[in-house]
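Sorry to interrupt, but I need a hand with the structure work. Can you supply me with one protein entry, sequence and fold together? No commentary is needed, just the two lines. Leave the record below and I will have a look.
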Amino acid sequence: MRRPVLKSLPLAVLAAWSLSAVDAFAADACTITVGRVVPVTGPLIDMGRETPWLDDNKVKPVNAAGGLQVGSQKCKVVYKIYDSKGTMAGSGEAATRAILQDKVDVILAQGTPDTTNAPSDLCERYQIPCITSDTPIEAWLLGPDGKPKTYKYTHHFFFQVPDLITNHVGMIKALPGGFNGSIGYLYPNDPDGTIFAMLFDPAFKKEGWKPTDPGRFAQGLPDFSSIINSFKRNKVEVVTGVLAPPDLQNYLQQAAQANFKPKMYIIDKGTGYPEPMKAIGKAGVDILSVNFWSPAFPGKSKYGGYDGKGLVDAYEKQNPGKNYSPPLAYTDAMYDVLFDALQRAGTKDRDALLKAIGETDLDSVVGRIKFNEQHYSVQPLGGAQWHEVGGKLVKENVYNAVYPSVKKTAEMKLYQSAK
């Protein structure tokens, strides 16, 4: 059965299609129902833009071959999309519906703590196998008291914060032409800004760098002039922060008007995705950020046989005018973890499947995935910079000292304003 292209359909139609797909497979002797919690709407929509292309890319070939071989059975795979709406409440509602109403066999959730943490907690409560990604490990692992949670049913893979800090410090040290030690902060008064300031400030000061810190400002700040003027007075050469795309665009416009020309911007959050960077336009050229995935990463898909470049090429060929974003690869890898565990378990039995997930040691497009005793796997990262190539913004991996297995694809440049 050929599924129609669903990306442009409203959620109600998507939900109805998912239910009809479940009904169509109901008569099969073995069906595995996957509930995927992902932001399809809301502030985190950039993490769900490839949905459901990437699901079909994994599931359709398996079902076309008669199903996934699980023990002596061929099992059809059915996925259902649950919109997290990019919020903790929305992801909790989505996971509750998937577990209690639709009785899925496994949950896959991705896209910041707002989409991964509530489903993880619910899977623990209702004893449902769960695989999560696209959230820094510490943001998934640590509870409100700062102590690690104990997970039994959930397994997670992504980068860890110490690697992120080492990566950022290393990129600054690698700045072409050197650095005068004056660094400016753009950390807003939101969860990301508060946490990043708390983590990065001690690391930068340890290097002997002098920060210009305007404090935690309101998200959506209309006027950055006082911050920009303080950067200019203190001869700031590197500006680092974590900003949503509208704030970054507003800031960059005002910085250009004030003729502020730092050598380097390292800005995380909205800079990880192509659509926001397209909206920012020329001002986004040469901005640096963490590279939590690109085709430069090592590894291949067990269920597909392609590497990162092959996955990206397939997506962009079938979606003209679209650029990939990193969640594409992490979703691909989540399906690989699930399929591999099901085949090793040889059964859908919940306990056997859970044991097999925990014993995962698998090559994937995001690198090798091997869960530790705390149920997480640390994935590699690099340093990204947006370069203009042929009139298009292209994310290049320009720093790989933390994980040399992530290939460099270009050399780091000074920010355009400093040229």
